[in-house]
Amino acid sequence: MIAINKEYWNDIPLLHVVDQEKKEQALPTLTYIHGFTSAKEHNLPIAYLLAEKGYRVLLPDSMLHGERETDLSHMEREFRFFDIVKQNLDDIETIYQELVAKQLLEGNRFGLAGTSMGGITTAAALTQFSWVKTAGVMMGSPKITAYAEQLIGFMKAQHKELPISDDQLHLLIKELKDIDLSLQMEKLFGRPLFFWHGEEDAVVPFDHAYSFYEEAIEHYKNPENITFLKEIGRGHKVSRFAILEFVKWLEYQL
User: What is the pLDDT along the chain (254 residues), one digit of tens a residue?
Assistant: First the structure.
């Protein structure tokens, strides 16, 4: 029986999805990060499919989302987007340390994936954590600096005044370069990496991931370890096809 347990790991609310009989065993584990304005419960389909195959799946709520939501307005939360990504990185490290401390992780079989903001987080995490064995980016950008510059331009067009100075914006861009995977491709270390993106995505540019993939594949001795699945006519919504293909890929790579 697949169990869905609501737990709190160092104050991080998460859903722990696993075969009930294997809950206390060391298992290969995927942590999946949701997108902006979403929440942990929205990724239960992928968690269920993986749990059926013997994986442990952890679905945390990001800062200012789900159980961690506050009374911030949507616009205020938008301006905290990159703060949320950075907090996600801290949360991922906490979750990994808890897995190790609880002896719930089989070997080094720790996977990380996410949707949109979660995919952006996943790519950033590869610059920080060598213990991420395999990763999946679902309609996210591995070019966080370029994405930030684009987002800032969009916000400036939407709002006459931003609640952040130009100096603060320059500092933000400088800080993001430290977690920009496209600027640190040597940190891929040939690790298995899966991309899915709809070609008609109007939120996160398709080209960010695809142009990265075309360059990154040259860094792989085993090109089969990096996969890009594009879906023609698909916008900013993960399809069932994408979920099923990622589950099959992860079963092979993790």
Answer: 999 999 999 999 999 999 999 999 999 999 999 999 999 999 999 999 999 999 999 999 999 999 999 998 888 888 899 999 999 999 999 999 999 999 999 999 999 999 999 999 999 999 999 999 999 999 999 999 999 999 888 877 877 677 778 888 889 999 999 999 999 999 999 999 999 999 999 999 999 999 999 999 999 999 999 999 999 999 999 999 999 999 999 999 99
Extract the tokens encoding 238: 């993960």
| Distant-in-sequence contacts of 74-83, Cβ < 8 A, 24+ apart | 74/37, 75/159, 76/163, 77/37, 78/155, 79/155, 79/162, 79/163, 79/164, 81/36, 81/117, 81/151, 82/144, 82/148, 82/172, 82/176
Q: Record the pTM.
A: 0.96
CB 13 within 8 A of CB 66: yes
